Amino acid sequence: MVCTSRRGLGAIVLGALIGLGSPATWAQDTVRIGLPTKTYYPTIIAETAQRQKLFDKEGIKAELTIYRSGGETFEAGAAGAADLQLNSVSILAAGRRKGVETKAVAGTALGYYGWYLMVRADSPVTDAAQLDGKKVGITAAGSGSDFLARWAMQDRKIKFTEVPLGGGGLVPNLLSGNVDAIVLYSPLSFKVMQDKSARSLLDFGASVPQHLTGVWIASDKYIKEKPQAIQKALNALYGGLAYLRANRAEAIKMIAEIDEIPPKVAEAELDGDLSKLSTTGEMKEEWVARALDFSKLIGMTDLAPAADCYVTTFRPQPTVK
Question: What is the CATH number of domain 116-207?
Fold first, then answer.
């Protein structure tokens, strides 16, 4: 019979551990994160968390995939290609009715920060009410810009024609005079204001009643089977936001690089959008319900109830670099 001393056994175990690597590498979870477009705050936050190695510090690996829209991102999640994604309450509520069972696990924004109703700098229009009977450019039917255009019509009791132009067509069609106004998002909105080619009639971030405009979502299955992976990913993501808010010079540099915009526009994006995002991920049923009510403005009717659309079991604890 072979007898191994405690000291000898300890040496064997230690040697095995060294061979396996550090504890953070054991059975490391990979979280696939879906981002709806490149020049959008979730991409900046996720890229920051990645560059600052915050996912590594949480003991997970993050794979970031940038899609072309919220709809495409949601489809990726439904197909099993994304574990965690940034999207809207309305799209997950509609999905639940069609058998795509996802829930919000953390809130990101309570307003459309950086979104404006804009006209050309030399336009004679000085008030949103003057757009009655005019043409207003949006990205696409069913989009956030569609919702905001319809909200503006309802709020100002006017009627204008919405013209779908795609994200890349908004500013060119405004400047060429093909439309009288556009619903524009950041950082493009900040850029055209800074170069004085367009001006704002309505700040949607300040005007639209508070509701959840963005949430991190995951499938019911992933929430049940991988809650620790979700918690760690959220810690890193909110850590990325905390880093941006605490390191202004570096934040402006990274935003400019990620969004491919001038530093001055990146600074406006930091102050006008990222600095206003939720640092806690808090969600309330009233915020979810209001978001679903607003969704009806763009024709969404068959939606799951607010209580079925989110969970409060996750409380992001921002990872510190």
Answer: 3.40.190.10
Q: Which two tokens stand for residue 258?
A: 């990620």
For the chain, domain boundaries: 26-111+211-308, 116-207
The top-level CATH class assigned to 26-111+211-308 is alpha beta
Q: What is the CA radius of gyration of the chain?
A: 23
CA 49 from chain centre, in angstroms, equals 14
Q: What is the pLDDT of residues 226-271, one digit of tens each?
A: 999 999 999 999 999 999 999 999 999 999 999 999 999 999 999 9
Q: Where are the beta strands (DSSP E) in 15-93?
A: 29-35, 60-66, 84-87
Intrachain domains 26-111+211-308 and 116-207 with the same fold: yes
